[in-house]
Structures are given as structure tokens and as C-alpha cells.
Amino acid sequence: MDGDKAPVAHRVRNAYLRPSSTPGRSMLRVLVLCTVSLASALPCARAQAPLRSAVFPPDSARSRKSTPANSQRSIVDSLTATLSKLEMHETTVPPGGSPHAPHRHTHEELMFIQKGTMEVLQGTTTRTAVTGSVVFMASNEWHGLRNSGTVPATYLVIRVDPHDIPQNEASIMTPPARPVKVALFAPCYVDQLYPQAAIAALRVLERLGVDVDVPMGATCCGQPPANAGFERKGEPALEGFVRAFAAYDHTVVLSGSCTLHVRLHAAHAGPNGTHVAGHTIEFCAFLHDVIGVDRVASLNVSSPRKVAVHIGCHGLRGLGLASPSELQIPRVDKVRALLNTVNGLTYASSARPDECCGFGGSFAVSELAVSTKMGRDRLVDFTNGGADAVVSTDMSCVMHLQGLARRNNIPLPMMHVAEVLAGNVA
Predict the structure, then answer these.
(1) How far is CA 169 from the centre of its chain?
(2) Whether residue 69 sits in one domain with residue 150
(3) How many domains is the chain built from?
């Protein structure tokens, strides 16, 4: 096979709680009882001014580590007769948001989901906790949280530190003992039309110390026929996707629409479908939620561009990459958080910051006139805002907008977020 025409997979392969059925007060009582039992089982030790029996009124909580995206209220933070630290706080996280990057620590925690749905990473396993669920985080276990629902999620955390616990804070942010297996999936159109985006993503992940594989068996996820109404005809492709990525802890995808399709439908595609559905994640979400913005900043990339940011609809409203402007919820924007690490990069203003570009897959064929008008409106908004480039999470949107820009003689370079983070854009 000719090297220049080979699929990107060939070119880069070696280059690179269960929820409660009765949520509410009864589960909160169980949570408190579990904490008391755990504390009573620990050996007693001397403590200065230990916490005495008390009742804390609702208005005693105080703000703690609140950000525009997440809010926290501290309820209890003290030592006791048997614990060097007993701490309880309440956290509220917007849809798609995470309270922190995945990490681990020596102390143990109990969590009670008061409202919403949280995706819980424990070691290399991802579980779902709904309203009323209780989550236990063991000492030194790699863990993380993400609001996978459509409304803000609120949960209580109780931290327990016995007196004799080794306070080895150096273990924080240390990955699990077993290396995490990560695979990169380049969707069909990226593979054939924009391989530079996949290669850039691979380089970014490698520079961040991620051991990445590009499986040879990866082809199509089956989204195009499914979205066109031929769901059964797309099943063989989805089953092949599951087989190709069943062995990985994370499957990182360069497309919001492909990611959402796999997450919603792969559970029914073979014995490993549930695992693949729960461990498939869009590229920007992986960098933001799993790797962490601080590590991305260590890339130390510069690009003196004024860019317009276009987040595809599936990524925006389906995966929570940012807060849709039509919803009155706390603002979060994972894509701009990553781009904020690029030195010299600024943003063009936008009158319609998260409007659809008009592509929509087969929509661009069946509704050509509407699709074209939507795309041109998007380009006008970009140019009116003074953009000298467009950065997107989806190359399918780029393909649509790039074609319209060329036909209308609009000299506006367009690229994937990965290309900017890889330093490919001057």
C-alpha cells in the first residue's frame, strides 16, 4: 500500500453504586451511619480540641473553593476524638462539568448524590451514580467525577482521616499502578480528508505522556446509516467498533457526533458494548476531564491568532463541552479552557456564539438551501467578529464551512483544536 495514501491508522499506528431505589432521607441516614461506624472502628488517639457533639443548622455552611463552573459549601471541617480530620462539604456541578481532574489521595471519602447524575471513575472502571446513590472512594484509588446529566448535580462529600493515616500528599495526581490503555479513533472523514488532525491529536497525547494506540481494526462507528434511518444497516459497523476498542480503558474520538453515537448505542452491540460505550470520550473532554488543563498548559504552545471557536452541536449539547447559551445554567467551556493555555491566542467576538453551522450530516444533502444559508450566516458572524481563523471540535463542521468559504472567496483558515495544541498553527 502506498504510504502517502494509506489510512491514518496505518501511518501513525507505530508512531504512536449501584443506585438506590429509594433515594432521599433514608439513604442520607445510611451515609451518616456508615461514617459514624467507620469512625468508631478506628483506634483512638490523642487530639487537641476534638469536635464535640453538635447540631449544625442549615445556614452554618460557608462557601468553599467556588468557581464560575462549580460551587462548594463547607459544612464540617474538624478533628475528632478518633479522627485527625472529619470534613463534610456540598458540591454543585453543571452539566458536563467536573469538580476536579482525576486524582487519588490517602484519605477515604463517602459521597451522597443529592440531585442529578454523576459519572464516577474508580480505578479504570466508570460507573453511574444517580439521585440517592452512595459512592465510596477507597484510599489511594484513582478517581474522578463528571456530571453526565442535563441538569446541575449536587452531592455531599464526607472525608475521613484516622490519626495514623500516612499523609503522603505526593500521591495526589499519581496515575494508577497499571498503565491506562488509551486508543485514538479517527472518524472516516478525518481518516480520508483531514489526516493532519488525527496526527496532531496523536502528537498532543504523546507529548502529555499518554501511551496511545491506533487499532488497525478501527473503521466506521456506524453513525451515518443510523442517522439516515437505517439503524440496522449500521449495526455491523458499530459491532466492529466495539470489537476494535474493547480492550482499552479510554477510546478518544475526534468527533462529538461519533462519540455521542457510540455512547448512546454501543451498549447493545456485543458483549463488550457497555464497556466501550462508557469509556468512549471526545478528544477535548479527555484532555479537560482526564488529563487536566494544568498538564495541557505544560505543552507551552504559542499561536498569535484571533480565532472564532466553533463547537459542534453534538459536542455542545450532547456531551457538555460547553454550556449552551439558551440554558440558564452555570457557564462552563472546556474547549476554551484548553485554548486558554495557548500563548498569544485571542478570541473573535460572536453575536451567535454556539449556532449550528448547518452541516448535520445528511441534512446538508436533503436540505441543501437551508444548510447553505446556515453555514453562510456562521461565516458572516466569524468575519464580523474579526476572526483570522476558525478552530473547531469537529472536522465535519470544518468541511462544510470550508467549502462555503472557498466558494465565497473568504480566506479563513480552519483547523481542529488538536492542531492548535500541537503547535501546527503559527
Answers:
(1) 25
(2) yes
(3) 3
Handedness of CA 192, 238, 392, 102 (dihedral sign): negative
Question: Residue 158 belongs to what H/E stretch?
Answer: strand 153-162
The neighbour count for residue 61, using CB atoms within 10 Å, is 16
Q: Is residue 255 domain-shared with residue 145, that is, in the same domain?
A: no
Three-class secondary structure of residue 402 per DSSP: helix
Label residues 256-295 b or e (16+ Cβ within 10 Å = b).
bbbbbbbbebbbebbebbebbbbbbbbbbbbbbbbbbeeb
Residue 10 lies in a domain: no
Q: For residue 110, give every residue at least 6 positions away whose Cβ sits within 8 Å of its Cβ, in sequence order, or none.
A: 31, 34, 35, 134, 135, 136, 137, 157, 158, 160
Q: How many Å apart are CA 139 and CA 35, to the nearest integer?
A: 15
**Residues 87 and 196 reside in one and the same domain:** no
Residue 2 included in any domain: no
CA 70 → CA 66, 73, 122, 349, distances in Å?
Answer: 6, 10, 21, 25
Name the domain boundary from 119, 149, 171: 171
Phi first, then psi: what are they for 156, rounded to 5°?
-100, 145
Q: Residue 326: what pLDDT?
A: 85
pTM, two decimals, is 0.63
Query: Cα–Cα distance between 277 and 352 in angstroms, integer?
Result: 32
Kindly state whether residue 237 falls inside one of the protein's structural domains: yes
163 and 273 belong to one structural domain = no
Q: Nine-digit cell at 318?
A: 450532547
Query: What pLDDT, in 10s, does the model give residues 342-398?
Result: 999 999 999 988 899 889 887 878 888 998 999 999 999 999 999 999 999 999 999
Whether 165 and 29 map to the same domain: the answer is yes
Domain ranges, residue 199: 178-289
pLDDT tens-digit profile of 94-103? Answer: 887 788 777 7
Terminus-to-terminus CA distance in the chain, angstroms?
Answer: 33
The confidence band for 178, taking pLDDT boundaries of 50, 70 and 90, is low
Q: What is the pLDDT of residue 184?
A: 96
Q: What are the residues whose beta carbons fall under 8 Å from the beta carbon of 368, sequence distance 6 or more?
A: none
